Amino acid sequence: MLPETPGVPPREAVQRWRLVLAREAIDPAAAGREQQSSWEAALAGCGLPVAGLDATRPRPRFAPAAPLAASVPGEAELLDVWLIERVPAWRAREALVAAMPAGYRLVDLYDVWLGEAALPGRVAASVYRATLAGEEATADGLRAAAVSLLGEATLPRERRKGDATIAYDLRPFLDALDIGEAADGGVVVTMTLRHDPEKGVGRPEEALAALGKRAGVVLRAATLVRERLVLGDPPPPPPPAPRRRASGRSPGAR
């Protein structure tokens, strides 16, 4: 942890690393705040000059891209970390590999522009891969069902939320459905599910349920993993403030 100097404001970040991470499925009890705390401890102890550790209340500056359900592994999760000194990639890699929280593995990292838009706001979609259990569905049958689903303007569905049943439209969240075959002859469904800042995110179990219903079978995922996150273009800058129009009067006019 960096030493704190009384009366001196925290130093500004000069470098931003984007980490590409593989994450195992984790205990649901360790999700949320526990994961936040594990990353805070890892970054505070990694030996890198992480921004925020020299503040009056030290807290490393980092930002994960998008939440991931505890039961679902991730193959290419994203997380940004800010540093107050520039360091080479080899040093950042060595320090981070040695300090990874339990269940995480560093796949890659790269330097990104400090002024780039916030990472969470750039996530446009998640790509999930489900390997189906059982032999009820065929790849050809599911391909036809996927084409049919994607051709619909709306896909009304319902889901449970606590004690209530919520009606919603799945179609805005369903960006792509690709059906393939595993090496053992099983069926693999790859789903691109959109994120919406107001409506929420597409859920893989809902997409599988809709696909199975259209195909006339019940689909069960033997394995489910989030392959990657899709980043969209950064949001446009705000429009300039309107210029105040001159009145056209001379100072002495009434």
Topology:
Blueprint: E1 15-23, H1 33-44, E2 62-64, E3 74-83, H2 89-99, E4 104-112, H3 119-122, E5 123-132, H4 139-150, E6 156-161, E7 164-169, E8 174-181, E9 187-196, E10 200-201, H5 204-215, E11 221-231
Antiparallel strand pairs: 1-3, 1-4, 2-3, 5-9, 5-11, 6-7, 8-9, 9-10
Quick tags:
254 residues; Alpha-Beta Plaits; 2 domains; five-stranded antiparallel sheet; 11 strands
What does this protein structure show overall?
With 254 residues, the protein is of the alpha+beta class. The protein has helices spanning 33-44, 89-99, 119-122, 139-150, 204-215, and strands spanning 15-23, 62-64, 74-83, 104-112, 123-132, 156-161, 164-169, 174-181, 187-196, 200-201, 221-231. It has 2 domains: 15-116, Alpha-Beta Plaits (2-Layer Sandwich); 122-231, Alpha-Beta Plaits. The protein contains 5 helices and 11 strands, in the order E-H-E-E-H-E-H-E-H-E-E-E-E-E-H-E. Strands 5, 8, 9, 10 and 11 form a 5-stranded antiparallel beta sheet that branches. It has a 4-stranded antiparallel beta sheet with strand order 2-3-1-4, covered by helices on one side. A two-stranded antiparallel sheet has the order 6-7. The longest helix is centred in the N-terminal third of the chain and has 12 residues, at 33-44. The mean pLDDT is 89.
